[in-house]
Write a structure and sequence with these properties.
Blueprint lengths: L1 H23 L2 E6 L7 H16 L4 E6 L7 H10 L4 E2 L25 H10 L1 H8 L6 E11 L1 E4 L13 E4 L3 H9 L3 E4 L5 H7 L4 E4 L1 H6 L8 E3 L5 E9 H5 L3 H36 L3 E3 L3 H21 L3 H11 L4
Helix pairs in contact: 2-10, 6-11, 11-12
The structure holds (2S)-2-hydroxybutanedioic acid.
(2S)-2-hydroxybutanedioic acid binds next to loops.
């Protein structure tokens, strides 16, 4: 009897030790993205890491993999689905392969009346309704992260729609971007973000669109002689998590992570504008690319050229209601 007690005491101690070791193992969140640390999204991911680890007292460890070091554009979403990574913040232009093309309505040109219009849309029923569509795909939609308005570039000035004629323009995946560049007479091509610099350098494509922070950190301005600060469309991200992972977290941990998400979102959205303004200044100072700004007449010519896209969008994004709602909120008749 005595012997058995001694043995079970040893066993219990061993078991407790194992439990203790298990309890000490932090939950790891792999967060993959395609831009550098030195961008609104890159800084947002690092802020989330800092806050998530702090608020969970180290029970969660966030590993951030920037600049396509782990996965490229479409591979990221496959990796999230399979559970190889737990969090991402892809551009909303990249959700067609996982069955939520409706997000592309937000790529429609000239639909946001500046930052205020953009913010109103993502915070309102349109933005929230789109985010909810992710649930059915096994994805937890957590927040919108802002980047800013697109610029467009080539090795010639792009001032009027006709200037795009015959140019191969890299796009990130959206059928809406495909439509508006075709309206300009360009030939849009989908390509992973990590391949754009080399494609521009070697002439595989002639031009691209992106925000100033991405032009600066990927050095696109080194291989594009002319950049038009056009603001023709907007780049935003959906911060997302693998649904099974996120919903399976202990409630107290998820509460702390939601707090980290909220604060990291406020932080990211508060720095995006300045980050892009600073990047534009640095591009200007480099003297490597000439910046162009559209005159009111040129801008009007772009607006006229893309008008048919509003109607075409209904079938392309496969949801007339979403397109109608967005156009209505922008005061545009399709
Ligand atoms: C792109 O592919 O151009 C963007 O989605 C990159 C990014 O994530 O900002």
């Amino acid at each position: 009897m005595k012997r058995r007690t001694a043995l079970s005491a040893v066993g219990a101690a061993a078991l407790a030790g194992t439990r203790f070791a298990l309890a000490q193992q932090p939950t790891v969140i792999k967060f993959s993205h395609v831009v550098t640390d030195d961008t609104p999204k890159g800084k947002g991911a690092l802020k989330f890491k800092e806050l998530a680890e702090k608020y969970t007292g180290g029970k969660v460890k966030v590993e951030v993999y920037p600049n396509s070091t782990l996965y490229k554009d479409k591979e990221e979403l496959d990796a999230l689905n399979s559970g190889s990574v737990q969090m991402l913040a892809p551009s909303t232009a990249k959700f067609r392969p996982i069955g939520v093309p409706e997000f592309e309505a937000m790529d429609l040109p000239f639909v946001f009346n500046g930052d205020e219009g953009y913010n109103k849309t993502v915070k309102g029923p349109i933005g929230q309704g789109l985010m909810k569509r992710l649930e059915a795909k096994g994805i937890a939609g957590l927040a919108y992260w802002d980047n800013g308005f697109h610029m467009v570039s080539a090795n010639k000035p792009l001032l009027m729609p006709a200037d795009f004629q015959g140019l191969k323009i890299r796009i990130s995946g959206s059928k809406i971007a495909d439509l508006y560049f075709r309206r300009f007479g360009a030939l849009p091509q989908i390509m992973a973000f990590s391949e754009v610099y080399q494609a521009l350098q070697t002439g595989v494509v002639d031009g691209c669109e992106n925000t100033a922070s991405n032009y600066w950190t990927q050095k696109f301005y080194e291989v594009q002689k002319h950049i038009t600060v056009s603001g023709h469309a907007h780049l935003q991200y959906a911060l997302i998590a693998n649904g099974k992972f996120w919903n399976g977290l202990p409630a107290d941990i998820r509460t702390q992570l939601n707090k980290a998400v909220g604060e990291a979102t406020d932080y990211t959205n508060s720095i995006a504008k300045q980050e892009n303004a600073d990047a534009l200044e640095k591009i200007k100072a480099s003297g490597k690319a000439t910046l162009h700004y559209l005159t009111p007449q040129q801008r009007q010519a772009w607006i006229e050229a893309v008008k048919p896209v509003y109607k075409e969008a209904e079938t392309r994004v496969g949801n007339k209601q979403v397109v109608d709602d967005l156009l209505k909120s922008a005061g545009i008749a399709a």
